[in-house]
Amino acid sequence: MSTFSRFLKITIQEDFRFPVAEIFAFLMALAPLTLYVEGANYASLSDSQAFSYFSSALGLSGFLFLIMIFKNISFGLGSDLEKGVTNSFLTFPISRGKYLTAKLISGALLPFLMFMVAPLPLVIAYAPNFGNYGALLLYWAITASGYMVIIGLMNLVAMATKKGATSLIAGLGLYFAAEFASGFALFFAARGNRTAFYATSLLNPSELWTSHYRMLGASLTVSTGIAASLTIASALLGIALLLASYASFEKVVQL
Amino acid sequence: MLICVNGESLICVITVNHNLPIIEVKNLKKNYGGFQALKGIDFCVDEGKVVALVGPNGAGKTTTLKILSGFLRPSEGSAKILGKDPWSSPELKKEVAFILDKPNFPPHVRVREFLKEAALMVGKNDGKALDYIKLLGLDQYADRAFAKLSAGNMQKFAIALALLREPKLVVADEPTSNLDPEARAQFYDLVLGAKRKGTTFFISSHVLTELEKVADDIIIMSDGQIRAKAPLNELASSMSSSSFRITTDKPDALAELLGGTVLEGKVVVDEHKADLSAIDGAAKKVGARIVSVDRVGSSLDEIFKKLVDEK
């Protein structure tokens, strides 16, 4: 095993302490009850139905994933920087880039796999006529791009504040501010001005697709082209923010 | 090397010293906003030595060590370890160990689990790590999470992690600040043991009397500048001015006449102010009975105070 994988192992031990695995097990045990009712309603799934089904079936998982990234990135990274845990790790032969990569794998990628990917066999199993893998990939892409933006922002906030509690409060503040902004943007969009709606959808592209599939009413329909290009823009913004957090940690952040 | 001058050959042997200083700091400056923590310091640390960095709070010691650890970037100048920039050379940490002033580890990971991975990360086995843990009396805490370890035990753990690497260089910032006297003595024994095996130490500390026992060279800092750097014995002899400690029945009167001070009931007079005959004369003048006169050299503490006060 390399130095990096050993470091990753320690980071995972810290991030996945009690009760993370237990919550995951509970969720998996609970899933058949909720998904059965949900999935049984569909005889066959159109794009719109599949998107709606995934959104609701993975809603609780998504919420838990969000809590995990607040715990691991906003609070965890901020706390490590505050208390000198990062410094202690960096006395080992590991670069700052690899340190951050391990934190992101443990803090965000693994929770994503646990909460957003692992339940999918159950989700599919309870919608027997599913067969719509395009909608599934789209749902993943939308979710991942939105979360990348959030994670990139959380990274930068944690590095700027270097304090666990402050970083968590700032992260929560940013998240809820974005949610409120999104709500206001929808309000204005319903009155014909879509600029704010498109701008806030960069943080949460699932709103775009909810509109696209006319779940928000016919007046707020977004074309496939706009929804796809704004989702790509959101993914690019997420990648840019992640790269910025790497560049910042490797070149600027003083410990 | 063979050099020919006017057809005659001249053999010239040039000895090149390939031993670069293990630490080389040149014109190192560090600003925090408008505050200048380091004002352009220069020093070198040679291989195999124990070098002490001492200074009062705010002198710039921790900033210097943080730059050497790669945690801070210098504002100007350079700090190199084994010829490399610590900020951009994580591979250095295979050969260099750092003991931080407030070491901290992932709070929910157990000591034994961390130790195993940490030992393997630096190419050692966890058995060796456990030996150090036992040596420092930490084996009873091996199954506890770091969150349940005291600051002193955390520091012992950091010391064990540093020394088990058998590094070329140990950079330590106040390594004994949280340790009890027994553990402090043990640490300095470990330093001397590792030094015998060729490990270089660069230690910052406030506990000057302990450093006196292990340090070869000393660097005294205050106000972001270096006040003195020299082998400890040379510094002590060049700076020392002995004093007389006189036990008498009239200390206050004698001290006043000799221009000395009364310390713990004894008159303390600098040797530049009075010699033995002057003390005898003064004692007769005030009618004091001299019980004893001891000549005492300057301690590292006194030298340090003198240099820092001179700024």
Provide a descriptive summary of the structure in words.
The complex is a heterodimer of chains A (255) and B (311). In chain A, helix 4 (59-83) packs antiparallel against helix 6 and helix 4 (59-83) runs antiparallel to helix 9. The mean pLDDT of chain A is 84. Chain A contains 12 helices and no strands. With 255 residues, chain A is an all-alpha fold. Chain A has helices at residues 3-15, 20-40, 47-57, 59-83, 85-89, 96-117, 120-125, 133-161, 164-190, 195-201, 206-212, 224-252. Chain B is of the alpha/beta class and 311 residues long. Chain B folds into 2 domains: 23-237, P-loop containing nucleotide triphosphate hydrolases (Rossmann fold); 242-309, Alpha-Beta Plaits (2-Layer Sandwich). Chain B has helices at residues 61-68, 111-121, 126-135, 151-164, 181-196, 208-214, 232-239, 251-258, 276-286, 300-309, and strands at 2-5, 8-11, 23-32, 35-45, 50-54, 76-81, 96-99, 169-173, 200-204, 217-222, 225-231, 243-248, 261-263, 266-270, 290-296. In chain B, strands 7-8-9-5-10-11 form a 6-stranded mixed β-sheet, with helices on both faces. Chain B is elongated. Residues 1-17 of chain B have low confidence and may be disordered. Chain A binds chain B through residues 1, 3, 6-7, 9-11, 13-14, 17, 80, 83-85, 87-88, 90-96, 254-255, and chain B through 66, 69-73, 90-94, 97-98, 100, 102-109, 113-114, 117-118, 120-122, 158, 162.
Structural class by helix and strand composition of chain A: mainly alpha
With strands numbered from the N-terminus, the spatial order across the biggest sheet of chain B is 7-8-9-5-10-11
**What is the CATH architecture annotation of the largest domain in chain B?**
3-Layer(aba) Sandwich
Spans of at least 5 consecutive residues with low confidence of chain B: 1-17
How many structural domains are formed by the residues of chain B? 2
Number of strands of chain A: 0
Question: What's the end-to-end separation of chain B, in Å?
Answer: 49 Å
CATH superfamily of the largest domain in chain B: P-loop containing nucleotide triphosphate hydrolases
CATH topology of the largest domain in chain B: Rossmann fold
